[in-house]
Amino acid sequence: MAGTRPATGVLVPRSTYHFTSESVSEGHPDKVCDQISDGIVDTYLRAMPDARVACETLATTNRVVIAGEVRGPASITPEVVETVVRETIRDIGYEQDGFHWKNCKVEILLHAQSVDIARGVDASGNKDEGAGDQGIMFGYACRETPELMPAPIFYAHRILKLISEARRDGRASMLGPDAKSQVTVEYREGKPVRAASIVLSTQHIDPDMTSDDVREVVEPYIRTALPADWIDEGTVWHVNPTGKFVIGGPDGDTGLTGRKIIVDTYGGAAPHGGGAFSGKDPTKVDRSGAYAARYLAKNVVAAGIADRCTIQIAYAIGVSQPLAVYVDLHGTGSVGEDRVEKALSRVMDLSPRGIREHLKLNRPIYARTAAYGHFGRPPEKDGGFSWERIDLSEAIQTAL
Q1: Element (H, E) at 290
Q2: Vertex 295: Cα angle to 141 and 351 (nearest 5)
Q3: CA triplet 317, 320, 326: central angle to 5 degrees?
């Protein structure tokens, strides 16, 4: 956040400001692609837990293209992959002329993983499994919500999730799958206190619906999604501000895997290393490293060590252990960042293998992550969202 500089020259963080984050629904063109790619990852991991997948999806008017590199069982044929594509589109709800789960053309362009990449990543002899690529991954947690997520992205997700549930169970059947939300939150003394503005654009089936008609449908879900006192007479509303939104999904705008990385993470409230998650098996540290960083940051905050925590982890391709671990407690910590860095390295093995084993990532748990954020979701009984557990807090406190 920007700061103000007093006469002493010391930068003082702002305490009153507005911050905005957006979310997109499962029917957004890019999210359609993320869900297809992660559905394919799950299919491979279900058949072979140590499968390797790097799968990209492109979707446009009645056409889906799958491309990427895989290493897995022969039982995963192009026909199996095509079935995943069609079932994913059908579950999202696309049965429109320009994009229909049954009629769209599906092209499969998957091929074997590069042997040069495999050589650097695979364990052999005395060499442990290395990182699948170089790069930097970030994790973040803060006390703005019970889920330890930044408030703007958390509530932007929640608005769309409630509207999606209403569309699916028939309460809002007049709406289509494609939607976007945006929430501007006012902070006072560093705390989120109200919604300064709300933006909601949603596809609708009836072409005669006006923006006012759409607002009448969605406003109750928006009010339910936000804290009770956050909407007041000063809150600015923009519902379908361009007017009609009938043509949606990949028929209206081409989708690609990995284009919503800020929606997937912290809504811009924290740094992002640049790597997308969807379509990648957990040997890829773009995904598993970011999950580990969120897990550690959340446990640091849950342990009462700080109110905010950012963690960066850096890797080199083919190298097992991270090159560096960086912690920033944003001036809210009860101990020094250097002590936290050392403690984290003691309580968790941050090699790719160590992360996968600690969080049990070699399971088909990824399609569910591909809409409404990878973070701030409750851990699930089958191991989904295992990186959201707060079971490491005591170990971190002891290691300090």
Answers
A1: helix 285-302
A2: 135
A3: 85
